[in-house]
Design brief:
This is Formate dehydrogenase. It holds the Pfam family Molydop_binding. One of its GO terms (molecular function) is molybdenum ion binding. The chain is built from 31 helices and 31 strands. The chain is α/β, with parallel strands linked by helices and 784 residues long. It is globular and about 75 Å long. It folds into three domains: 97-197 and 425-596, 3-Layer(aba) Sandwich (Rossmann fold); 199-416, 3-Layer(aba) Sandwich (Dimethylsulfoxide Reductase, domain 2); 652-783, Barwin-like endoglucanases (Beta Barrel), CATH 2.40.40. The strands form nine sheets. Strands 6-5-18-17-16-7 form a six-stranded mixed beta sheet. It is 36% helix and 16% strand. Helix 1 crosses helix 2. Bound molecules: ligand MGD (2 copies) and molybdenum atom (MO). One ligand MGD is lined by residues 167-169, 193, 196-197, 377, 414-415, 472-476, 479, 499-502, 504, 519, 521-522, 562, 656, 664-666, 734-735, 737-738, 755.
Length: 784
């Protein structure tokens, strides 16, 4: 594998079969059920499919590995899943396996040319394998030897030269043990997928409302008068959220969608779990659709704040919740002064919206007595993301939309346990109370200095400051930004360890020595313990903690559960007489939960409460008591200057999105049904007028150049597709476009890559791909 070469595409453009149809205006319905079942049966057969889908999101069953949207505690349906949840389960349940024979047949050189779609489709990893410097192939290794190798490498280095990455499927118990392992070793190098996802939400919410999480329950969504869905594509990424929005609409609530793309799920929803949804006309969802420019949300919420304050001035006491503001918040006067004037010309330029459109939506806000703002990655992955979310908090505070039914802030999380992992202490910037509690419980001395987040990890790779990189799930090489820089760095590390369920790109661009350790997934039965069958727990996007237990026979007898893998890595590192009894935890997850109950607030009596019917809800001061545990003990209004994305002449703003057939870097197929795109993924969606102005035509084959502070990044061979996106704003799929995101293009404060904030231009594709790739890597090598 050569350094500096662009990664193999997810799907090869030379073999694709691109078709473009009109985008859909409704989501789900019977088609969704059929697609899900077909896929599940093809992967796992009828019996396994029935066994798994009937247990999905059910009492005593397993938590859907799809997304972090909560299940209803009171109205759980017999089949509580969606098309994409079923696809995620099918992906894990496959009967195909990847073992010694596979690794003997395919060299790394060959695998590095394979598409990600092909890699993932090979099946479940079935035995541990290793590749050492100079080897051309991975080959089997025993578990004992694998752990010895890890222990040797970690001990031979200093603690801060090891990095422990987590992807958000990791259950609470595993996450707790994993962060304990890092801290007992002496490092806070605990980057996670959240650094690339909702970190901006935490960075904005912690200082303003005193908690880095959302403040609503599922019942609040049902009972709300007005819900904003900002920068989110729930029809694909959180399909069960559509049922909740439907319930809100049925009760008379209104929905405002804010998105540069007219996503199908925002407009009409046919609930596939009701008869009327399958045969009837469905429920219209968004009452107002604001087709905002990428990066224009800060301007929008500043304008909304301005309009609410102006109305309050005209009719005092009708809009602003003055008694709440006086009793519970700080900074209102400065905020009011800053929002006194508004430059409408600039607001219209920043948002691409008209003054009338913004005034209409402000009117809805003024009339609503209970408003919720939901948001996802459309607002978290831009330079000014933290300010945008703080501005959304301002507007919520203004009307007292905290701690009352149907109101609040709702960052909609991605990975099914990404929120729980953070609660368990997976964070490179731990709070002092956590470290103190860990030190007291285990008699260790946790390090106090901060560790690396995801982007800092990439920089540390480049500076040769990492010897060991352990990845608990995930696919770091394709998930993070600046793919070429990242992959070159990753290959310089002494040891990479991937605890995974399926082969992926990170296994191919490995460190000098590399281990792939196959593990049980959510749906697998975990019963190889002296104490019998074990279960785990997760926390959803609304802070509900509940158990999850797989029941399917694992595809191989050589898989180990994640908590066991962590414990054995720790034992191999610290030896058998360590202060922490790793073996006891690995053998009985109740022991882990007992520790958690003494270390993490809100988990008191964990073992008893996790066994109750619907689990339990973690304390949430803004929601529970309308109070804010910030450093000043009050909710905080903030003032941010106006900022938006202004690309240089001849450039568009590029954002990256997920297709309907993918789970982050895992691909179920090549179709994006709701957007009308099928058979190919190397596309850039562009407004027809932008195409004409830039001198291109629909379906032109181009290379894409992104520019960031004078540095260019390139990606080859994309097809331009005329699409009804906001003008000036293009869209491409993640991770094909990650190579275009410069490593320093990040959100301020949260350090989240600017995955929705690239400035790009197109050049007609002429060179052959190989030649183009070689010359680009040469150019990159000479430039650095
Ligand atoms: N099936 C499936 N489910 C998933 C995932 C998956 O890959 N597949 N991934 C999971 C994960 S980890 C996550 S984090 C979530 C992600 O869930 P989403 O945040 O819905 O994911 P994205 O595809 O990134 O979509 C971002 C949306 O924001 C819009 N957008 C882009 N820029 C802007 C902007 O500047 N302003 C506004 N207002 N909107 C903008 C885009 O048009 C798009 O509709 O989904 C989770 N669920
Ligand atoms: N351009 C662009 N890039 C992005 C984003 C974007 O919107 N645009 N979104 C970002 C976001 S929100 C996220 S969350 C990250 C995602 O980053 P990651 O979480 O690192 O990536 P995934 O693709 O979810 O990880 C897939 C791999 O996880 C492993 N896996 C699956 N299930 C399990 C399990 O139960 N246990 C273990 N141990 N392994 C398992 C499989 O081997 C699979 O190959 O990507 C980020 N990158
Ligand atoms: Mo995510």
């Amino acid at each position: 594998m050569k350094f500096g070469k662009q990664p193999a595409p997810v799907a090869d453009i030379n073999e694709d079969n691109l078709e473009v149809h009109k985008p859909k205006t409704e989501a789900a319905g019977i088609k969704a059920v059929m697609v899900a079942l077909e896929r599940a049966v093809a992967q796992a057969g009828v019996t396994r499919t029935a066994q798994s889908l009937l247990r999905l999101n059910q009492q005593g069953g397993f938590d859907c590995p799809g997304c972090a949207w909560p299940e209803s505690a009171t109205k759980r349906k017999a089949a509580e899943f969606c098309e994409n949840g079923a696809k995620a389960v099918a992906e894990e349940n496959t009967l195909r396996t990847v073992g010694a024979e596979f690794w003997a047949r395919h060299s790394i050189a060959e695998l590095s040319g394979k598409t990600e779609y092909w890699l993932g489709n090979q099946g479940r990893l079935s035995e541990p394998v290793v590749i050492r410097e100079g080897d051309t192939h991975y080959s089997p290794i025993s578990w004992t030897e694998a752990f010895e190798l890890i222990g040797e490498h970690i001990r031979a280095s200093t603690p801060d030269r090891s990095v422990f990455y987590t992807s958000g499927r990791t259950a609470n118990e595993t996450a707790f043990m994993y962060q304990l392992f890092a801290r007992a070793l002496g490092t806070n190098n605990l980057p996670d997928c959240s650094n690339m996802c909702h970190e901006s939400s935490g960075s904005a919410l912690n200082p303003t409302i005193g908690i880095g999480k959302g403040t609503v329950s599922l019942e609040d969504i049902h009972d709300s008068e007005l819900i904003f869905v900002v920068g989110q594509n729930p029809g694909t990424n959180h399909p069960r959220m559509l049922s909740a929005l439907k319930e809100c609409k049925d009760k008379g609530g209104k929905v405002v969608a804010v998105n540069p793309l007219p996503e199908a799920g925002l407009f009409n929803f046919k609930d596939p779990q009701t008869v009327s949804g399958v045969v009837g006309g469905g429920t219209p969802l968004a009452d107002e659709y604001l087709q905002i420019k990428v990066g224009g949300d800060l301007a929008l919420f500043q304008a909304l704040g301005h309009l609410l304050l102006a109305e309050e001035e005209r009719n005092p006491g009708t809009v602003v919740d003055r008694s709440f503001i006086d009793a519970q918040t700080d900074g209102f006067d400065a905020y009011r002064d800053a929002r006194q004037e508004l430059d409408w010309a600039e607001t219209e330029k920043a948002t691409g919206l008209s003054r009338e459109q913004i005034e209409t939506v402000a009117g809805m806000l003024i009339r609503s007595k209970a408003t919720i703002f939901c948001w996802a990655l459309g607002v978290t992955q831009q330079p000014h993301s933290v300010d945008t979310i703080k501005e959304m908090v301002n507007v919520l505070l203004l009307q007292g939309n905290f701690g009352k039914p149907g109101a609040g802030a709702c960052p909609v999380r991605g990975h099914s346990n990404v929120q729980g992992d953070r609660t368990m202490g997976i964070w490179e910037k731990p709070k002092e109370w956590l470290l103190e509690a860990l030190d007291k419980e285990f008699a260790i001395e946790s390090p106090r200095h901060h560790g690396h987040d995801a982007v800092e990890t990439m920089a540390a790779f480049e500076r040769d400051e990492v010897d060991v990189f352990v990845s608990m799930g995930g696919n770091f090489s394709l998930a993070c930004s600046d793919t070429e820089t990242l992959e070159a760095g990753m290959q310089r590390i002494g040891l990479t360890v991937h605890v995974s369920t399926k082969p992926n790109r990170s296994h191919v661009v490995h460190g000098r020595t590399s281990l792939i350790l196959p593990t049980l997934g959510r749906t697998d039965k975990d019963d190889k313990h002296a104490k019998g069958v074990q279960f785990l727990s997760v926390e959803d996007s609304m802070s509900v903690v509940h158990s999850t237990q797989g029941r399917l026979a694992p595809v191989s007898e050589h898989l180990l559960a994640e908590p066991v893998i962590v414990a054995r890595m720790a034992e191999a590192t610290f030896g058998p007489d360590h202060l922490v009894d790793w073996r006891a935890m690995a053998g009985d997850y109740d022991v882990v939960r007992d520790h958690i109950s003494r270390v993490i607030p809100g988990f008191e009596d964990f073992n008893a409460r996790i066994r109750t019917k619907n689990g339990f809800v973690l304390p949430n001061p803004p929601r529970d008591t309308r109070s804010f545990k910030t450093d000043i003990g009050r909710g905080r209004f903030t003032v941010s200057p106006l900022e938006y994305l202004s690309p240089p002449h001849g450039h568009l703003v590029l954002q990256t999105i997920r297709s309907h057939d993918q789970y982050n870097t895992t691909f179920y197929g090549l179709d994006d049904r709701y957007r009308g795109i099928s058979g190919g993924r190397r596309v850039i969606l562009v407004h027809p007028e932008d195409l004409a102005e830039l001198g291109f035509q629909d379906r032109d084959l181009v290379d894409v150049v992104s520019t960031f502070r004078g540095h260019d990044r390139q990606a080859y061979k994309f097809r331009l597709v005329a699409y009804p996106t906001a003008k000036g704003c293009a869209a491409a799929y993640f991770p094909e476009a990650n190579a275009l995101v410069h490593k320093e293009n990040v959100a301020r404060e949260s350090n989240t890559p600017g995955f929705k904030a690239m400035f790009v231009r197109f050049v007609p594709h002429v060179a052959e791909p190989e030649a183009a790739e070689e010359s680009a890597s040469l150019a990159a090598a000479t430039a650095s």
